[in-house]
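Supplementary notes for students who missed Thursday's class. We covered one full example, reproduced here. Read the sequence, then the structure, then the short commentary at the end.
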Amino acid sequence: MGRLDGKVAVITGSGSGMGRVEAILFAKEGAKVAVVDIIPEKGEETVKLVKEAGGEAIFIKTDVAKSADVKKMVDAVVKTYGKLNIMVNGAAIAPAEGSTVELSEETFDKTIAINLKGVWLGMKYAIPAMIKSGGGAIVNFASISGVRALPTIPSYCASKGGVVSISMVAALENAVHNIRVNCVAPGPISTQMVLDQWPDEQIRHFSDMTALGRLGKPEEIARIVLFLVSDDSFWITGQTIVADGGLTVRIP
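Structure (token representation):
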């Protein structure tokens, strides 16, 4: 038996990166997965990989910053599978910013809209469906940037810090409904995007900053998320799990 047998899961941002790995892992553990992304080609590729692994999945194109899109997505999942048990809010952007003074209003607004508003909208529409389903588990993606101040990415830090805060509020509000809400705060992870875009010097720099001397792997984060949405973590809610290879231990 899988750890998610009989469960229905939504994963936003699962067209690539950590979200794609989570979708495949959840399906292998028995969940029916709604792959949610704004880029259809990437989302459909994730669905294909899930099915090749023996799982069941559908793709729903969604702009997580638009209320109507998110509501329509949750409604489609419930219509297809009859319930919703798991929500992973992972869709996010990490644009070039500059200092607090240099940051443009356009970049600030877009980052907050996707990274923070998108998480709020995901919970806003998922929670009522979970209540009707008898409860559930939500994991919101924060970042070490949400628990530590890092220069030149002010809107990203603000968005991820907001995710931590709103997750704690939602955890308090919805425990009575048998709904748990937690965050994962990853450090630098070796997604394909990072490997393609980061120069070798930058990869070495962040690897050296961690206590374990390397970047994290998407599979390592996916297993943490699996734990948080499974019944194995039933006594955990309102928490932020920092998974950074010891990087924040070395940042005062």
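Commentary. Helices lie at 17-28, 40-52, 67-81, 105-132, 154-174, 192-197, 200-209, 218-229. The beta strands are 8-12, 32-37, 56-61, 86-89, 136-141, 179-186, 240-243. If anything here is unclear, bring it to office hours.
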